[in-house]
Specification:
Blueprint: E1 2-12, H1 21-34, E2 51-53, E3 62-77, H2 78-88, E4 93-100, E5 109-118, H3 123-135, E6 140-143, E7 149-152, E8 157-163, H4 167-177, H5 183-187, E9 190-199, E10 202-203, H6 206-212, E11 226-232, E12 251-252, E13 273-274, E14 277-278
Length: 281
């Protein structure tokens, strides 16, 4: 199909999971130039390709079905653009699908799913914590940006569960989606699934949930976290029964515990605190 605005699905795995979002955008610009794709540019003193990511990728996370929208200066054949870009793509990066979308279309994320292998000896404890999270009325986490506060992320949790995939599925994920993982990663029989709603007011973060599930050490041990699904609003079939929550999440003041005064610290334990958080001069 021919068009001048394209929506790509791409995967970024292996060593490229350590590429930052800004570096990824620079890499894509080089790919566009080398592939001789006539892309539209933004205005201003520092023009850049008119491309939009539906959701930025956390550092160190594999992306299996990420979304990128690109505008071109002339109508092009969608599959031809995809093939030209794939020929310029580095190892671990691949455009898997492309379609033409209307110029006014916008890739607004609705839901995302993360997947992480879990060692068998930790499955029972993780399953119990996951059940408690889904049964809880509120799940509080500390957020420090854009302002310090406690945030209830329970409305964003569509599902937190463990599954035991079939051997063929495990092998496929081990060789494709988690090619950068360790041997222990590929041998793990159990997988944690984090099914999260995405709204204009925010979402839950994978690192927050891993901390709640006491699994924060696994990525450092070679177990690769992957974002396996990224659903968009305009690609959701009409009449889908479940939907993201409406409205802003519940918040509460963040409780600060002042550090004990040392040789270089103030004697007053309330120094630097205010009703709106710490004061930085």
């Amino acid at each position: 199909m021919t068009g001048d605005k394209f929506r790509f699905r791409f995967r970024k795995v292996g060593d490229l999971r350590l590429l930052s979002h800004l570096d990824l955008a620079r890499c894509l610009e080089r790919m566009l130039r080398r592939a001789a794709v006539p892309f539209k540019s933004t205005a201003g003193f520092h023009p850049a390709p008119r491309m939009i990511f539906a959701q930025s990728m956390p550092l160190g996370v594999d992306g299996l079905r990420e979304v990128l929208e690109l505008e071109t200066t002339a109508p092009l054949e969608a599959e031809d653009v995809r093939e030209r870009l794939n020929r310029q793509a580095p190892r671990g990066f691949e455009f898997t699908d492309v379609r033409v979308v209307p110029m006014k279309a916008s890739a607004v994320p609705r839901r995302m799913v993360y997947s992480l292998p879990v060692p068998a000896d930790r499955v029972e404890k993780v399953a119990a914590i996951a059940a408690d999270l889904m049964a809880a009325e509120k799940v509080w986490v500390d957020r420090h940006k854009p302002r310090p506060r406690k945030l209830n992320i329970r409305p964003y949790l569509r599902g937190v569960e463990l599954s035991e995939p079939e051997a063929s599925a495990t092998d496929r994920l081990g060789t494709v989606a988690h090619a950068s993982g360790s041997n222990e990663d590929r041998r793990s029989r159990f997988r944690l699934g984090l099914d999260l709603w995405v709204t204009q007011s925010g979402t839950a973060r994978a690192d927050e949930l891993l901390a709640l599930l006491e699994l924060s050490d696994l990525p450092d041990a070679g177990f690769v976290l992957a974002r396996s699904e990224l659903d968009l609003h305009d690609e959701t079939p009409p009449g889908t029964p479940d939907a993201p929550p409406d409205g802003p999440p519940d918040t509460a003041p963040l409780e600060y515990t002042p550090a004990p005064a040392g040789d270089d610290g103030p004697a007053d334990p309330t120094w630097g605190l205010s009703p709106n958080g710490p004061v930085v001069e």
